[in-house]
């Protein structure tokens, strides 16, 4: 975790948060890192500020067919794409991406052994997002707690389509896990693949009842550039979620939300509005590797953000938050914050 802690230190050194930033963990005193306690010269602070950390806030890895002997796929969820860790590391190296949040993939469903093995093998490179198991028997709560406390996962994913038929994320099991996430200082990442309109009421209810749980909406909450009044309405409701200080947005999997081909420039207006409402310090880029590879390529996905941000006239500082500072700050270890 040395490198990640170093990244956190760089963030802490690199100046005050922008105006709209809400330092979520700031109520709690942080560990007095040696460097934070030291008096810092302006030159050192400038050097740290110049070091731009690139953190991909959303990607997946799964076992190669060879590794699947040790780490089997969930039955019926065999991958059709390569997504093993060595391939990811090669892509990150080519693209100049320093670190990443690995989101537990559906291919291994609730069996986290492969992702855990990758996290343990590359502790300075990756942090993990586990998948919440919303089974009716409530066993998912203990699994979640163990994944955080024993295996070091820093984020938990809520996939509403894994809830038992007819059940919502606001059921007893969902609320217990959401509340626990707040207690553990682990953000809840929510995937609204079938439309934010289906889930926004649940999200608002959870945020209202548990204001100390951080929420991250995956992939712009799957809001495409609005064409109809209905789409405009739901996008406005997404912007309005910024009223919850605990709410963050992933500007990720751009190929899933754009109506255009790479470099997805139709997203510039959305990005501009998201940043205006939330502040760049509540927005983070993610690739959705390996799905992004056949779409536009990994390196190209990262480069697209520069072009989109440029079209949206974002400041270099905003871009720096989106490309790494937001996520670095958010995913720092609860034990180190
Ligand atoms: Zn994904």
UniProtKB/TrEMBL annotation:
State the SUPFAM superfamilies in the record: Metallo-dependent hydrolases (SSF51556)
At the top level of its lineage, which domain of life is listed? Eukaryota
Keywords, alphabetical: Decarboxylase, Lyase, Signal
Which InterPro entries does the annotation name? ACMSD, Amidohydro-rel, Metal_Hydrolase
GO molecular function terms noted in the UniProt entry? carboxy-lyase activity; hydrolase activity
Q: What Gene3D superfamilies does the database record attribute to this sequence?
A: Metal-dependent hydrolases
Q: Where is the Amidohydrolase-related domain?
A: 56-331
PANTHER family assigned to the protein according to its UniProt record, in alphabetical order: 2-AMINO-3-CARBOXYLMUCONATE-6-SEMIALDEHYDE DECARBOXYLASE, CATALYTIC_ HYDROLASE
Q: What is this protein called?
A: Amidohydrolase-related domain-containing protein
Q: Which organism is the protein's source?
A: Arachis hypogaea
């Amino acid at each position: 975790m040395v490198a990640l802690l170093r990244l956190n230190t760089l963030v802490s050194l690199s100046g005050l948060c922008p105006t709209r930033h809400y330092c979520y963990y700031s109520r709690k005193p942080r560990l007095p890192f040696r460097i934070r306690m030291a008096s810092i010269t302006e030159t050192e602070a400038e050097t740290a500020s110049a070091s731009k950390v690139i953190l991909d806030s959303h990607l997946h890895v799964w076992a190669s067919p060879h590794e699947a002997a040790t780490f089997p796929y969930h039955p019926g969820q065999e991958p059709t794409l390569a997504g093993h860790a060595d391939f990811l590391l090669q892509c990150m190296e080519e693209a100049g991406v320093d670190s990443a949040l690995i989101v537990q993939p559906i291919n291994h469903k609730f069996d986290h052994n492969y992702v855990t093995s990758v996290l343990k093998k590359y502790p300075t490179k990756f942090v993990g997002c586990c998948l919440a198991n919303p089974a009716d028997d409530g066993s998912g709560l203990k699994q979640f707690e163990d994944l955080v406390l024993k295996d070091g996962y820093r984020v938990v994913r809520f996939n509403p389509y894994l809830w038992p038929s007819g059940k919502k994320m606001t059921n007893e099991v969902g609320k217990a896990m959401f509340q626990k996430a707040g207690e553990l200082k682990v953000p809840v990442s929510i995937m609204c693949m079938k439309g934010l309109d289906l889930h926004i009421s649940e999200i608002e209810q959870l945020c209202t009842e548990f204001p100390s749980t951080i929420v991250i909406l995956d992939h712009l909450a799957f809001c495409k550039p609005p064409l109809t009044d209905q789409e405009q309405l739901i996008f406005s409701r997404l912007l309005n979620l910024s009223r919850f200080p605990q709410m963050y947005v992933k500007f990720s999997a751009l190929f899933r939300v754009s109506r255009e081909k790479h470099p997805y420039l139709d997203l510039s207006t959305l990005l501009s509005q998201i940043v205006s409402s939330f502040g760049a310090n509540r927005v983070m880029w993610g690739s959705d590797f390996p799905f992004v590879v056949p779409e536009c390529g990994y390196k190209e996905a990262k480069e697209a953000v520069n072009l989109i941000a440029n079209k949206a006239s974002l400041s270099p500082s905003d871009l720096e938050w989106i490309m790494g500072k937001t996520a670095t700050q958010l995913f720092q270890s609860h034990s180190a914050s």
